[in-house]
Design goal:
There is one protein chain. By secondary structure, this protein is an alpha/beta fold. The protein has 3 domains: about 60 residues, Beta Barrel (OB fold (Dihydrolipoamide Acetyltransferase, E2P)), CATH 2.40.50; about 190 residues, Vaccinia Virus protein VP39 (Rossmann fold, 3-Layer(aba) Sandwich); about 110 residues, Beta Barrel (OB fold (Dihydrolipoamide Acetyltransferase, E2P)), CATH 2.40.50.1070. It has 9 helices and 22 strands. The strands form 4 sheets. The protein has a 7-stranded mixed sheet. The protein has a 7-stranded mixed sheet with strand order 18-17-16-19-20-22-21, sandwiched between helices. Strand 3 and strand 4 form a beta hairpin. Helix 1 packs parallel to helix 9. It is globular, with a radius of gyration of 25 Å.
């Protein structure tokens, strides 16, 4: 029987020839947009009004993606990234763009998405952007670890862009400076442990009551390893905690306390509130912008004694506690049970008896919830999925005003359409630049009932 050779199919991706394209704009994820043969081409790293050399890496029916090879004619908004890890680390994606241009792009993207998906118009209602420092703004970060079984070396860093690889880093210019300075020393001390193969992620926190380090471990450390870490923590003035497989925390060095931060209106330190949080649970990472965001929410809602205000997706009370300080009756509802417990502790520590917290799944049927009923004002601060299910109960709540804090403009636009259909009018919309050097867009919107 004759046998014929059959070549195996080439499984590698076929790159196109090099192309020169003109970039027209950015998409809301920060990628440049160009046109080629009737298709939209997305180019990460390219800026508007640039001529760039690229290779197509992915082709679909209506769009394509390309790899940026060379900037042939640069935009005035292009700058050299200051981070040595920028092109491999997956943390930042807009360091090649001036900070002012980043904010202009994000504000325009926010207005465009709202106009397209919610029909809100041309942005005449746009409030001033809440903006702060462009660098060293993160008060919290989780660093990944990777243990090489061959070299017995543990790497400490962040995930690579579009891959699960860990990129070892020596610094992070968006991380608070004291935390960034700990990265290299921590990588060194972790490699001194006999149980370094069982070390998971490392969480670093810069709080008002000190610097915290939470080390995830998959099995208990022996006495020598504990002593090594305790000595390190003492030398670097870090409160060290170990976290096991069940999420339980063990104090290794420092006071038995949770990290905390203060919130106060400008020039009103006497009425400041203190909020503590558990490592691993959600907290806004940009303290400066969080303070400005809370102040803006208070300003837009103007809470008064005698009013009933509902705070959905309240976390551990970031908005609820300051709202209750006004004297209004405030109800906070959160889906994570641990954060509800912490929120109640925060209410008690701030001596607020006009503040009540409930645990509830806000995507489920809320008809039997004891807190659901007529309210004066509503604040929403959902995760990226938005608050669509919760807004189905607007008819029962009938708030006169709604402040919606969003970390995803697409879900904000979808939910805004619900509010507009129910007789609310968009009065204010503002960009919150919570994450400079990245494409992430946070926003706050104010709606008022007109019918």
């Amino acid at each position: 029987m004759a046998q014929f050779f059959k070549a195996k199919p080439n499984s590698s991706k076929q790159l196109s020839a090099k192309l020169s394209l003109k970039v027209d704009q950015l998409d809301h994820l920060g990628a440049g947009i160009a046109q080629h043969q009737g298709k939209v081409v997305f180019i990460a790293g390219a800026l508007p009004n640039e001529s760039v050399q690229v290779q197509l890496t992915e082709q679909k029916k209506n769009y394509a993606r390309a790899k940026l090879l060379k900037v042939e004619c640069a935009s005035p908004a292009r700058v050299a990234p200051i981070c040595p890890h920028y092109h491999t680390c997956g943390g930042c994606d807009l360091q090649h763009m001036t900070l002012s241009a980043q904010r202009e792009h994000k504000a325009a993207a926010l207005v465009n998405i709202m106009a397209k998906l919610a029909g809100t118009g041309d942005g005449a209602f746009l409030a001033p952007t809440l903006e702060g420092e462009g660098w060293h703004y993160r008060r919290r970060a989780r660093l990944a670890t990777l243990f090489d079984k061959n070299t017995k070396h543990l790497s400490l860093g962040f995930r690579a862009a579009s891959r699960s690889d860990v990129v070892p880093i020596s610094q992070c210019p968006v991380l608070a400076q004291p935390l960034s300075a700990l990265i290299v020393p921590f990588a060194k001390v972790l490699n001194q442990l006999s149980a370094k193969a069982s070390v998971g992620h490392l969480e670093l926190i810069a709080a008002d009551n000190g610097h915290f380090a939470v080390l995830r471990i998959t099995k208990p450390l022996n006495a020598k390893d504990q002593a090594t870490l305790s000595d390190f923590a003492e030398r670097h003035q870090v409160q060290m905690l170990l976290q096991d497989n069940d999420g339980q925390l063990q104090r290794l060095h420092g006071e038995l306390a949770l990290p905390e931060y203060q919130l106060c209106a400008a020039g009103d330190d006497a009425n400041a509130v203190t909020l503590s949080f558990t490592p691993g649970n959600f907290v806004q990472v940009n303290g400066q912008i969080n303070q400005a965001m809370v102040n803006q929410a208070l300003d837009w809602l103007a809470p008064k004694p005698g009013e009933r205000i509902l705070d959905l997706f309240c976390g551990m009370g970031n908005f609820s506690v300051p709202l209750a300080k006004s004297g209004a009756e405030v109800i906070g509802v959160e889906g994570v049970a641990e954060m509800v417990i912490q929120a109640r502790v925060n209410a008690q520590q701030n001596q607020l008896d006009n503040l009540t917290f409930y645990h509830a799944d806000l995507s489920a049927d809320l008809s039997l919830e004891p807190w659901l009923g007529k309210i004066d004002k509503l604040l929403l601060d959902p995760a990226r999925a938005g608050a669509f299910e919760s807004l189905q109960w607007l008819k029962k709540m009938k708030p006169r005003q709604v402040v919606y804090v969003s970390c995803n403009p697409a879900s904000l636009a979808r939910d805004s359409a619900v509010l507009l259909e129910r007789g609310y009018q968009l009065k204010q919309l503002g960009l919150i630049d919570m994450f400079p050097q990245t494409h992430h867009i946070e926003a706050m919107a104010l709606f008022e009932l007109t019918q």
